[in-house]
Write a structure and sequence with these properties.
This protein has a four-stranded antiparallel beta sheet with strand order 1-2-3-4, with no helix packed on it. By secondary structure, the protein is α+β, with helices and mostly antiparallel strands. The protein contains seven helices and four strands; from the N terminus they run ββββααααααα. α1 packs antiparallel against α6 and α5 crosses α7. It folds into two domains: about 70 residues, no CATH class; about 130 residues, TerB-like (Orthogonal Bundle), CATH 1.10.3680. Bound molecules: zinc ion (ZN). Zinc ion (ZN) binds next to loops.
Length: about 210
């Protein structure tokens, strides 16, 4: 008696490294192809059609759609970090300009805060140039902040509020225009009034904490 049938087999088509969404790290993977085989006495002898492909993480054994190989979360994170730093500088600049005059101590504080948040150096001149450009363009930062807020987590929003507060407080007083801008910033970031007040009282108690 001849025993025949069909069976699915996975074969490895590609190996490499990828960012595993489950491990949240770079790990080796294999790209597996599933193909039906015609079997004779339970032995696959003739390959038939392919039934699909998947990517398997060698570490956690999780399986993913092949699309996972074209994702580049590290690059996306870098882009996000750059955008975050840009938003931070823009908000600080808006705050520097809120009371109408840019104080030396405010520029110094802006550089200091920027360095702490971004890990990059900001020269006094760079910061001044940015402030001057913003002043000349007359661009309103709040709609941009509102747009950017959707990509920020609570910590990110808090950091931006704290940075703005530290700028405002750098010359020793927070005047009404600065206070108004702070309030508008909290609104643009979508923070509740209670949360916003909480952040302000925290930063007021420890002005240099970050
Ligand atoms: Zn994994």
């Amino acid at each position: 008696m001849i025993i025949f049938g069909w069976r699915d087999r996975a074969s490895t088509k590609e190996r490499g490294n990828f960012y595993c969404p489950q491990c949240e790290a770079q790990n080796p993977f294999k790209r597996q192809e599933i193909r039906s085989w015609f079997t004779l006495y339970f032995i696959p002898v003739i390959p038939l059609h392919t039934k699909g492909e998947y990517v398997e993480c060698n570490r956690c054994r999780g399986t993913f759609h092949v699309k996972v190989l074209s994702l580049n979360p590290e690059k996306q994170n870098e882009e996000f970090a750059a955008e975050y730093q840009h938003a931070m500088v823009a908000v600080m600049t808006a705050m520097l300009l809120a009371d109408g005059n840019v104080d030396d101590s405010e520029i110094d504080r802006a550089c200091e805060i920027y360095e702490r948040v971004s890990g990059n150096q900001a020269s006094r001149q760079d910061m001044l140039d940015y402030v001057n450009r913003t002043q000349q363009s007359g661009e309103d930062i709040l709609p941009k902040v509102q747009q950017f807020a959707t990509t920020l987590n609570e910590h990110g929003k808090e950091m931006i509020v704290k940075a703005a507060y530290m700028i405002a407080a750098a010359d020793g007083t927070i005047d009404p225009s600065e206070q108004r801008f702070l309030g508008q910033l909290g609104g643009a970031l979508g923070l509740s009034k209670a949360h916003f007040r909480g952040i302000l009282s925290e930063v007021a108690a420890t002005p240099l904490a970050g």
